[in-house]
Design brief:
Radius of gyration: 23 Å
Number of helices: 10
Largest sheet: 6 strands, mixed
Shape: elongated
Distance between the termini: 66 Å
Number of domains: 2
Order of helices and strands: HHHHEEEHEEEHHHHH
Length: 249
C-alpha cells in the first residue's frame, strides 16, 4: 500500500470539479423547451394544480437538471475513487463489462463496481451485476492464480453496514468504501473541502445562466402552450406530449 498524498487528491478534485461545473453550464446552453415538455409527465403537474406558466417551466427544468447533475456527479465520484485507488494500491479503471475498478490488496484481487449511493437499480440490474462478476472472475483468475478474486459493490455515499451477499459480493458504503480504497478512515470527510472549491463563484455563474434561461423558456411556453387569457392550455400541452405519431403509409 502506498501512502496517499492528500495534495494530489485536492489537485485532482479541483480540476475535475471545475469541469463538472463547466458541464452544468454547457447543459443550460443546450436546453430546448420542446424537448423538456416532451420528457416530463404533464398529468403529474396537472394533478399538482400547477397554474402559473413560470412554475410549470421551473418544475420541468429543475427536474431535468437534477437528473443530469446526479449522473455527472456520479461520474465525478467514480473517477475520484479510481484515482485514489491508483495512488494507494496501483488500481486502475477496468475494461471488463460491469467492472469499474480493479485493484490488488493483501493477496486479494478486487473487482469493484462503483455506485453513487446505496439506492440504485431494479431487480434486473442487480441480477446483471451478479452475471457480470461471474463472467469477469475466470478472466482474471487465469492470469492471477495466486490471488483470491473478490467482487465488491462500493457506494460513494450513504449509511449501511458492510455485508456480503449470498453470491459472495461484498457491499461497502460511504465511509467504509473510501476507507477500503485509501486505508484512511477519515477520507470520506477530507474530500468535502476540495469538492467545494470555488463553489460560490461556480454556482453564481450557473444561477445567472439558469435564470436567463427560465426567462426565455417562460416567454416561449406562454407563446406555445397558453390560451389568450394566459391560462395553460392543458389540452394542447398534453397533445404535444402524448398524441400518437402518424404511422407511415
Amino acid at each position: 500500500m502506498n501512502p496517499l498524498n492528500l495534495d494530489d487528491v485536492y489537485e485532482f478534485v479541483n480540476i475535475r470539479i471545475s469541469q463538472f461545473h463547466q458541464r452544468r453550464l454547457s447543459i443550460i446552453k443546450e436546453i430546448d423547451l420542446k424537448n423538456l415538455v416532451k420528457r416530463k409527465n404533464p398529468y403529474l403537474f396537472r394533478a399538482k394544480n400547477i397554474t402559473l406558466a413560470q412554475n410549470y417551466v421551473a418544475h420541468i427544468l429543475e427536474s431535468s437538471l437534477a437528473s443530469q447533475e446526479e449522473t455527472m456527479f456520479g461520474e465525478f465520484l467514480e473517477a475520484l475513487a479510481i484515482f485514489i485507488a491508483s495512488k494507494t494500491y496501483n488500481g486502475y479503471k477496468s475494461h471488463l463489462e460491469g467492472v469499474d475498478l480493479e485493484l490488488k490488496k493483501a493477496g486479494v484481487y478486487y473487482l469493484v463496481q462503483i455506485k453513487s449511493g446505496i439506492n440504485w437499480g431494479n431487480s434486473s440490474q442487480h441480477k446483471q451485476i451478479k452475471t457480470d462478476f461471474e463472467k469477469a472472475k475466470p478472466l482474471i483468475q487465469s492470469n492471477n492464480l495466486d490471488f483470491e478474486i473478490q467482487p465488491v459493490i462500493g457506494s460513494c455515499y450513504g449509511k449501511a453496514r458492510t455485508t456480503t451477499t449470498k453470491q459472495g459480493i461484498i457491499k461497502l458504503c460511504g465511509q467504509s468504501f473510501w476507507h477500503f480504497i485509501s486505508d484512511d478512515p477519515d477520507l470520506y470527510t477530507k474530500i468535502v473541502e476540495p469538492i467545494g472549491y470555488e463553489a460560490k463563484k461556480h454556482n453564481e455563474d450557473f444561477s445567472d445562466a439558469r435564470d436567463n434561461l427560465i426567462n426565455q423558456l417562460n416567454l416561449s411556453f406562454i407563446q406555445q402552450f397558453c390560451l389568450p387569457n394566459g391560462a395553460i392550455d392543458w389540452e394542447k400541452l398534453i397533445q404535444f406530449n402524448s398524441k400518437n405519431l402518424v404511422s407511415p403509409t
